[in-house]
Specification:
- The protein has 162 residues and is mainly alpha-helical.
- Helix content is 83%, strand content 0%.
- α1 runs antiparallel to α4, α2 runs antiparallel to α3 and α3 packs antiparallel against α4.
Length: 162
């Protein structure tokens, strides 16, 4: 059975799917962040890794922002014009929106990964349920990144479609 969707149906599915993905990501993030971070040494090392990752992303995103601006301008100039001369502008806007959403998902993923590393190690300790508990923390933290990419992508694409 094939279901045909009109524009309203496509928009509803896109928005609903994107919102649902982000809500599940939030639930998984909450569950991971409730786990024990370990002892003082683990917390200190985890904080250092987290700060290093934030510094790396800050530097990377400064260069990425410059790249996005240059490419957006090039797209705006080089995309063939339509009757209203707005095709290049709209394409450049879509490019920038995609870059911002992608960077946001990357930031969320890196923040979750660096917040989850000590929690995963602590959960793997035999006294804290062992490997199965550690894998649950690791998979949930990885799912946050995947769901953020999916949710933000769906929302962005749906909004741009409108």
């Amino acid at each position: 059975m094939v279901v045909a969707l009109n524009d309203a149906g496509i928009i509803s599915v896109g928005l609903s799917g994107g919102i649902l993905a982000l809500l599940i990501a939030a639930v998984f993030a909450y569950q991971v962040l409730q786990k024990d971070r370990g002892g003082p040494t683990m917390k200190r090392i985890g904080d250092i890794v987290h700060q290093g990752a934030k510094s790396f992303l800050h530097t990377e995103y400064m260069y990425l922002a410059l790249f996005v601006v240059v490419v957006a301008i090039a797209i705006g100039i080089l995309v063939p014009r339509d009757q209203e001369n707005l095709a290049g502008l709209f394409t450049a806007i879509c490019f920038v929106v995609g870059a911002v959403l992608s960077a946001s998902a990357g930031y969320a993923g890196m923040a979750m990964a660096t917040s989850a590393n000590t929690r995963t190690a602590q959960a793997c300790k035999p006294a804290d349920s062992g490997l199965a508990a550690g894998l649950a923390v690791a998979f949930r933290s990885g799912a946050v990144m995947a769901l953020c990419v999916t949710g933000l992508g769906l929302l962005g694409l749906t909004i741009l479609y409108v």
